[in-house]
Clavaminate synthase-like protein (Exidia glandulosa HHB12029), 288 residues
Amino acid sequence: MVNSPHFLGYTAVGSEYTKGQLDMREQFDWATPLESTWKEDDPDYLRLWGPSQWPTEEELPGFRAVMENFLLDTDKLAHEFTGLVSEALGLGPEKLYEFFEPPGQMQHRGKMIKYPEAVEGGSDQGVGAHYDSGFLSFLVQVTDHQPGLQVQNAAGDWIDAPRIPDTMVINIGKGLEFLTSGVAIATSHRVLSPKPGSGTRYSVPYFQQIVQRVVLGEAARTLKFPPEILAERDARGKPVADSINYPEYGHLPAGHAALIGRNKSHRDVGAKWYPALFKEIFPDGAPA
Ligand SMILES: O=C(O)CCC(=O)C(=O)O
Ligand SMILES: [Fe+2]
């Protein structure tokens, strides 16, 4: 991944951070096909979208086609689902589509993740408590009989989200929460490493992205929800959550908020490709 300004590629175990703590997972990040249109004078965050890195056909025959088709298929599902969310929130079926570029002009992301067993007495942070950055995430839990994924309920309790065969877990991202002024609450979630001796866990999330140039906290004011939807939101109150990421959606373009998140998670990549932003985030250097 360190070779990619788009944060796409392979990450070894123990080099990614959530809330300042190391995650214990190995992963391959890839995205729907898109050439980078970023130029020197453009804002940095437009550089987040660009081509994936692939092993050669000789090394892994057919891998690229399978991976790209999986994301493109899941993206169709996510796109339809977005229309249903828009309708369910009383906005009409088309409204939320205003926050997407036309197909082929934006990029959605995926990850193939391997969580090794925890070592006795070691860290069990597969990935720490966080929100996903975008709109909706669709997650395939590959491994059977392997707990790990947990979501936080409104009271702040961590609840297991075990694998149910032939289903995907759908998480709400922080972008959708900002855009809906908290009507849709982002899912605070984490993964605990498999217990020693219980085997490796695999999962494959798809992350639906949003337009990069829009400040979601401002765009939110243009969405008119029916009063009964707002009343439900207000009656529900503010949930308790351990996750803290992406407060920047309130005042920065969505792409910038996403880029800050990537810099915090993958510091080696951030320091190499976005040195000025990296220094803003970590003025005294990245803490160990
Ligand atoms: O592995 C999982 O089940 C969840 C992964 C996740 O939350 C993420 O990568 O954002
Ligand atoms: Fe996540």
Notes: The two ends are 20 Å apart (CA to CA).
